[in-house]
Each structure stands twice: as structure tokens, then as C-alpha cells.
Amino acid sequence: MVAWPRLLASHPVRAGRADGSVIRCGLADLMLADLPVAVVFFFDRPLDPAQLIGGLATALGCAPAFAGRLREDELALEIVCEDAGVPLTVYDLDDTLEQAVGRVTMPGSDLVDLVDANGARSGGGPLLTVRISRLAGGATALGCSWHHAVGDMQSFMVLMRAWSAAVAGAEPVRAVQVPDRDAYLDSVLPAEDRGRPSLRRVGPEEAAGIEREVAGALRANRTVQIYFTDVEVDRLREEFGAETGLKLTANDVLCAHVVGAIRTLDRDRAERTLTIPVNIRRAMGIAPETIGNLVGDINLTAPAGRPAPQVAADIRGAVERFAHEHLCLRANRAFLGDLGRDRIGECFPLGFDPVRRTFTVSNWSRFGLYDLDFAGHRPVLMSPAADLLLPWVASVVEGFHGAGILCTVTVPAAIAARLRGAAGREILHPYRSPDEPLPALAAAIRKLA
């Protein structure tokens, strides 16, 4: 039985001041200007909406881009930091914490007000929305959605840390907002990169195929969540490391292991591409508080039969050589600049190719998600929420209370069913001991793999 939410309050949250600054978006932002992002933080205690509203107002003063509005003309897409505000709603929901966790990746979960990305781009809609759901039993779900043109996951976490600090009355967190993002990149990027863009221009036939995939995504695809304990991850790292002679990270082994398991269950024998987005801030000496889409891509191609340990080694080598062999932001900008801004809609990243089953795995771990503190309460879980259900997309983030890893993956429905079945669990968890305890909330996730 669906527990319909009851609206208790609606607030436009503003910082109360605006300097009128304008951020000129870069070409990378334009490529993402039709996409929303949505996440939900779960707390096992009640949160005070008044405290959250006051803290958010302070945080928006630290990171005003999130309270701004987009402005588009023939030459540029801009974020006007005019303190237009963030809509925040408060709902009562009959779901318990366990029930809400179980529904978070389902369309219509009623836990997030998804930003209308197209409407924001053309009609001045908000760039961030917040929904506070008061759950049965005293728990709270904090659902947030933001416009991808504003920034990446690290950008959003700058806002969240500022919000947490404001509620705690701690030293304010200040975001770094550059007025011209492409000009800023010119000042920090190497004079030359690999020279080959990670973008492609599609023709009418391929564009039609992509449109069909997107239009049918909600019907055709399902989201599956896979939980790995810390012990499992350590065993994967040890086994893969021994086979390759390398010190591999959790992200290396889990990307290779999960994608390999899915290809095996799908009986996929074709050559495929694996895309790993890479945060360029550290590699380029960019301040971690900088707002924007500061991400490059690694694109690795391998046959279906390549063993997972070798794929993990490929990922590790590519990350370590990223700045020399994979960085291509200048090449991307040159490609788009030559094509012309009015034809950017004909281009897609190499990592977005649902027809050819290109898999993209984003690492959202090590961003301090579980360090957020709202009046003494920290999240018990952070999960992506259902948005567009585009296939062959996954994210990796710390699991319950910051322990273990939760991998959220969207795949066609038939593959999702195999992942959730006995065969899927067997191939996903060869390093899990039968008597290894799982977090209590793990049982709440709908058909956890």
C-alpha cells in the first residue's frame, strides 16, 4: 500500500542577500544542462525543519549559485546569483525508515522533488529543491535535487558541508565560485592534453536510437542496489592485487567486479567501453571548494572475456596516468568550439552510449557524506534517488553509517532480475562469508543484490 505524503509546509529559502554576481557556464556545463541529479539522506532521528531552513539560508549565502537562476542567450549560459531562492517542502509520510529506504530508487518514491532541468534552463526555475519527509517512528528523509549545470557531486557537497556547519553554529564554509568557468580552466589546465576529445557527434539515425532509449527508460530499466561489506571489499582487493601485483583501490576492484558480473549474467560477448569519471581538482591543483563540473573521463575498451582483476589493473593504471593520457578538456572544448554552440545538442560524451551498452561508473565515496551533522544527527544512509533511469549507469558510495560500499546500478529489467536472483548473488558475492552480518537496514532495501 502506497503511503501518500501530506504536505505540511512550503518555504522559499533565501540567503537574504545577493551580490548580483554572474557565473558564465563553460561548454562542459552546457553538455549537462538538461540533467538533474537527486539524492536522499536518511536519518534515524527527527530533524527540526526550522533549524534546517535557517541553516540552508546561511549555506546559500556561502554557495549562492544554488539559489540562483539560469539565463541563456545566443552566446552563453549563465547562472545569475540573484538569491531567487530554493523551494523547500515539509511532508508527513506514513512510511517507516525501512520502508522509505526500500523505495528510494523507485520512480515516484515521493522523497525528492526533482529539479525540472529543461524548465530551469528556459524558464527561470530553481536550481536546487529540498524535501524534508517526516517518517513514521521519528526518522527523517532529506531529499535534494540540483541542476547539473551548477556543478558536480563535490560541488553539491560544498553546499551540504556549509549547511551542516550552519546548523551546528560552526565556522562557515565558503565556496569558490569563478566568474568564467572556461577562462578559469584555461588558467589551470596544461597547455596541451591528449588532443583527442571524449565526445562524439551523432547522426540522425543514432540520435533517434538514443531518443528511443531515453523515452522508454522508465518502462524498460530498473535500479538495483548491491551492498558489499568492508570484509568483502578487502578480500576483493587482496585477491585482485595478488593476481595483478598492484595495490588496487576499492573503486578499482568494485568497478571491474560489478561490470564483469553484469556482463557475465547478460551473456555479453561484445567489446564494450567502460567510462570512469575523474574529479580533476586534485590533479590540476584546484581548490576542493570550487563549484563547477570539474570532471574528466577515462574510457577503457575491453573484450567481454577480459578477467575482472585485469580490468581493475587497467582502471588503476588509467587513473594514475590520467593527466598524461586521458585528460582531454581542451580537446573537448576545441571540438565543441569548432562545431558551434548551436550544434552542441548533436554531441554526446563517449560514456553516454546506451545503444552500445557503454557503462559509466561514478565514484561518490570519500566526499564526507556521513560526516554531515545536523544538530547532532548524522545520516544512516545516503542513496541516489530515481531520476531518469538511464541504463548502464552506476554509482559507488559508502554504505550504511559509512561502512561498506553501496553500488547503485541501472540496467534493463531482465538483467536486474538476474542480479537479484540466486545466480546474481552468487556471482556478485563470492567473497562474502555466509555468517557475515549485514547492517540491519540492508534488509530493508527492495530486493538487495
Q: Tell me about the biggest sheet?
A: 6 strands, mixed
The general outline is: globular
The secondary-structure class comes to: alpha+beta
* Biggest sheet: strand arrangement: 1-6-7-8-3-15
Query: Got a strand count?
Result: 17
Low-confidence stretches: none
| Helix-residue proportion | 25-40%
- How would you state the average pLDDT, rounded? 93
Report Rg. 21 Å
Distance between the termini: 23 Å
Count of helix runs: 16
Please state roughly what percent of the residues sit in beta strands, choosing from under 5%, 5-15%, 15-25%, 25-35%, 35-45% or over 45%.
Answer: 15-25%
Describe the structure.
The longest helix has 16 residues, at 153-168. This protein is α+β, with helices and mostly antiparallel strands and 449 residues long. Helices cover 34% and strands 24% of the residues. It has 16 helices and 17 strands.
How would you summarize this macromolecular structure in one to three sentences?
The chain has 449 residues and is α+β, with helices and mostly antiparallel strands. The protein is built from 16 helices and 17 strands.
What attributes characterize this protein structure?
single chain, about 450 residues, alpha+beta, 6-stranded mixed sheet, 17 strands
Detail the topology: elements first, then pairings:
Blueprint lengths: L5 E8 L8 E3 L2 H5 L4 E8 L5 H14 L6 E4 L4 E4 L5 E11 H7 L13 H7 L4 E9 L3 E8 L5 H16 L12 H8 L10 E3 L2 H12 L1 H4 E8 L1 H15 L5 H16 L6 E8 L1 H4 L10 E8 L5 H13 L1 H5 L2 H11 L7 E3 L9 E5 L17 E4 L8 E6 L6 E8 H8 L1 H7 L21
Parallel strand pairs: 6-7, 11-14, 14-16
Antiparallel strand pairs: 1-6, 2-5, 3-8, 3-15, 4-5, 7-8, 9-13, 10-17, 11-12, 16-17
Helix pairs in contact: 2-5, 9-12, 10-12, 10-16, 15-16
